[in-house]
Amino acid sequence: MRWPASMSELATVAVVGAGYFGRFHLDAWHRMEDITLVGLSEHDAGRAMEMRDAYPGLATYDDALDMVRAARPAVVDITAPPPAHLDLIRALSPHVTHIICQKPFCGSLDTAREAIGIAAENGCHLAIHENVRYQPWYREAKRLMDAGALGELYQITFRMRTGDGQGPEAYLDRQPYFQSMPRFLVHETAIHWIDTFRYLMGEIHDVSAHLRRLNPAIAGEDAGLILFEFDNGARGVFDGNRLSDHVAQNRRLTMGEMWIEGSEGTLRLDGDGRLWLRAFGENDEIEHIFDWRDHLFGGDCVYLTNRATLDAWRRGDEPETAAGQYIRNQELVETIYAGASWNADQHS
Fold it and tell me: How many CB atoms neighbour CB 46 within 10 A?
């Protein structure tokens, strides 16, 4: 049985998964005054009990389909691990009208395409929770660029320096599965900036990369240089390294530093979420002040992403990260892996 919801009725949400990142999603939905959080599906009994304590009255279920049948949400937010995505979308899309799914979406390009097809067959709107483009410094950077503050765009560079990837204990305290991923830096992390580069600079028509593994304790690559060519003639550089760090009060806030260069000036993002403008021909940067909230992860970007996705659906629009648009990021990831050169001594 399907429970249709008009755009104005998208007011009930159920969440699948309460792991490290799923908790950010629960917090975000709970804070929306026009949303009722009607259920959580979580296999781990300890996690389920913890979430019931955190959100009194929250109904928890061991099985996602049982939850949907009982709670009848208009929106399901899937925060479960990627291997579960396809089966969840296959099971739930006949019963709900709207699904948001975490990334890495379905874990592979083929399964992502299959999931998109299944959702479409069932008339279910599907969007990906890609939150980095919604971090407030990128939204403000886009506003400045669109207003002409940088003139003609030449290049965007992001230097990712999370500093969490050294030694045999790397990632174990937060997301231990990172250690065993055969594809890591690009598949798990750089895809955020592939998407954000597309948001800021436009479509990408060519990409090349050099990847390497610096920490022998992990299975996949943890450092790399990726070069992008945009349709507008600009270029991009993603310079990622999870072992080095950068200057920041919280190195998880921006995860690195960014420069956007144009004919009229340069915009720089620092590790504390501040934007700095330097006009062409000048030597002094001026801080550009803008409002944002430092809450949980990435300037409250989980809330901002879910809010924007829901609002788009309520207007009858496709969200920015609708699955059919988002999958271009995964196609680019596959292109990177297929054509990348590797450091032979540190990757097998």
Answer: 9
Structural domain including 166 reads: 133-293+330-342
Q: What CA–CA distance (Å, rounded) separates 117 from 52? A: 35
Q: Which of 100, 129, 158 is the last residue of a domain?
A: 129
Which CATH number covers residue 50? 3.40.50.720
Task: State how far the Cα of 68 lies from the Cα of 41, in Å rounded to an integer.
Answer: 9
Pairing of strands 98-102, 75-78: parallel
Beta bridge partners of 157: 237, 259
3-class secondary structure, 91:
helix
283 with 165, same domain? Answer: yes
Q: Give pLDDT tens digits for 89-148.
A: 999 999 999 999 999 999 899 999 999 999 999 999 999 999 999 999 999 999 999 999
Q: How many domains does the chain have?
A: 2
Helices (H), the chain: 22-30, 45-54, 64-71, 85-92, 109-121, 136-146, 191-201, 301-315, 323-339
Give the pTM. Answer: 0.95
User: Which of 129, 163, 187 marks a domain boundary?
Assistant: 129
